[in-house]
Design brief:
Distance between the termini: 44 Å
Bound molecules: zinc ion
Number of strands: 21
Number of helices: 14
CATH topology of the largest domain: Aminopeptidase
Helix content: 25-40%
Radius of gyration: 24 Å
CATH superfamily of the largest domain: Zn peptidases
């Protein structure tokens, strides 16, 4: 299936476009039962990686990984909390039990055999946000040593009424990075807390309590982190329970919620302590990113990176149809197929001046871990990584008149996207549900945090305006897809029409080709959370 076309083609001619049939064929293979849902660290990983390396090799690419290899090792830590031996809160000296999974949901990513927190005071820290560029600091220097930070999900203006002073400072309904639970846990650890609990609210996080507890207490992180820099426990308080707990502590959560929308909010001690003694089983596994490259002809140390994730959810409980393999056909075997198509087309066409890197990440579904490992230990310096272009979930319902932009206002790569779309006679549509924070939930994001300008194509951000059936048909496709998201029914189907996905991948081909033959450095827009980080490495780009 990956054999190169034989018909009359010279190496310097621009090959024809992304081939929907090739995309489908690659997905059909990777999402077949043989690949067992591509879980990291399993025999399915070996099989998947062999396939991917074989494909890159057949396409004439160079190994792009560590030490001239095709891969980068990624050590993963898996933690599983067990049934609590003790889990309770104490209010004014009266202790009462806490129900794990009902009132609270506690996990950890610290490499230790148990969670052992004794009578740790709870401190409400509003939204738990430190945003110097917005002159915002919810912590106000509060001492959190030995304490548990309790905070709200999303960012300070998410629930603000129009006209409130804060409205719009954090993008209004649009979620900023500060709204993500990942950020909140990291920031609480930086502030010295031993634990952090987020008050769940379906609207604010974008999903209900059943999704919060669906992990069953299993968590993943990169292995080798310093336990001293990590929270002993992290988790969620169920909304109703949190309101009761605050009331029993003589506080009004609803009123504090409003106070937390102001920059002059100050942390409030709850006069409640929490004790948790829970067993944790810990294991490490070795996984791998796959990296290939085409070395540039003129400025080889400047790289354009294309990325997708090869992993999916492996084998799980049977669905209603008895299927156990969560094949991740769309998420993200289709993205992987897109990267392989880009590799094929660039390899067959004229070699660009800058180097092209094709990255297939592991453990995206475990928390963006493969791309995070790369961002912490880059094979190609991030300061001279021109852009990261990521594919994660494309629509399979045919050609579209538009393309969805995730993370509007972040970088001038969105101008590149609009230009490329215009040459296809298409327009750019901002994501329909920016409060979901999709911009912070794919593999481009760890690169963005390190300052690399990024662009993500993800069809989950709203229904496309399909040539056949318009926006309604696009929304129907998305609704149907969301029922299969992370489920066994995210499977390859002969009914897929991949012409729209091919169009989207062509956008990356056009943007990548232009960047790879220019001396331009795309930049973050003023006010982006990532602008300052990029700016700090300006000298490395010689401008
Ligand atoms: Zn994905």
């Amino acid at each position: 299936m990956l054999a190169l076309p034989t018909a009359c083609r010279t190496r310097s001619a621009e090959p024809a476009g992304v081939d929907p049939a090739r995309l489908g064929s690659i997905v059909q293979t990777l999402a077949s039962d043989e690949y067992e849902g591509r879980a990291p660290g399993t025999r399915a990983e070996t099989k998947t990686i062999d396939y991917l390396i074989g494909a890159f090799r057949a396409l004439g690419l160079e190994p792009g990984g560590e030490g001239g290899s095709w891969t980068q090792a990624v050590a993963l830590l898996r933690t599983q909390v067990g049934a609590p031996r003790t889990l309770d809160v104490s209010i004014g000296g009266h202790s009462r039990p806490l129900a794990q999974g009902e009132q609270v949901f506690i996990t950890t990513v610290r490499n230790a055999p148990q969670i052992d927190v004794r009578a740790a005071p709870l401190v409400f820290v509003g939204y738990g946000v430190t945003a110097p560029e917005r002159s915002w600091d919810d912590y106000k220097g509060v001492d959190l040593a030995g304490k548990i930070a309790v905070m709200l999900i999303n960012d300070p203006d998410f629930h603000a009424a129009p006209g409130e002073p804060v409205a719009g400072e954090f993008g209004g309904r649009r979620m900023t990075y500060y709204g993500r639970w990942t950020y909140k846990f990291e920031e609480a650890a930086r502030r010295g807390a031993i634990g952090a609990l987020i008050v769940h609210d379906t609207d604010g996080v974008g999903y209900g309590w059943p999704t919060i507890i669906a992990s069953g207490g299993e968590s993943f992180d990169l292995a080798g982190r310093d336990p001293a820099g990590q929270l002993a426990l992290r988790g969620w308080l169920a909304h109703e329970y949190a309101a009761t707990l605050f009331r029993d502590a003589g506080l009004d959560l609803a009123a504090l919620r409003v106070q937390a929308r102001r920059a002059d909010f100050r942390p409030v001690a709850l006069n409640v302590t929490l004790t948790a003694d829970m067993p944790v089983s810990v294991a490490t596994t070795e996984s791998h990113n796959v990296l290939a490259k085409l070395t540039g002809t003129a400025r080889a140390d400047e790289t354009i990176m294309f990325g997708a994730h090869w992993d999916a959810y492996g084998i799980g409980a049977p669905d209603a149809a008895g299927r156990t393999v969560r094949a991740g056909a769309n998420d993200d075997a289709l993205g992987v197929a897109g990267i392989l198509e880009l590799a094929r087309l660039f390899s067959a066409g004229p070699r660009p001046q800058r180097t092209l890197v094709f990255a297939l990440w592991t453990a995206e579904e475990r928390g963006l871990l493969g791309s995070t490992a790369y961002a912490e230990h880059p094979v190609y310096p991030l300061a001279t990584t021109v852009a990261n272009l990521t594919l994660d979930i494309l629509q399979t319902a045919g050609p579209a008149r538009d393309v969805m932009l995730v993370g509007e206002g972040q970088s001038d790569l969105e101008d590149d996207l609009a230009r490329a779309a215009a040459t296809q006679g298409r327009t750019v549509t901002p994501e329909a549900l920016p409060e979901r924070g999709l911009f912070y939930r794919a593999d481009h994001f760890p690169l963005a945090r390190q300052g690399v300008p990024v662009l993500l194509l993800m069809a989950m951000s709203g229904g496309a305006d399909l040539v056949d059936g318009g926006r309604d048909a696009g929304n129907r496709w998305l609704e149907a897809y969301m029922r299969c998201y992370h489920q066994p029914c995210d499977r390859w189907s002969a009914d897929w029409d991949l012409r729209g996905a091919a169009q989207d991948i062509e956008l990356f081909r056009a943007i990548g080709r232009e960047l790879a033959n220019s001396q331009r450095w795309p930049a973050w827009r003023a006010g982006s959370e990532f602008e300052a980080t990029r700016e700090a490495s300006r000298a490395a780009r010689g401008h």
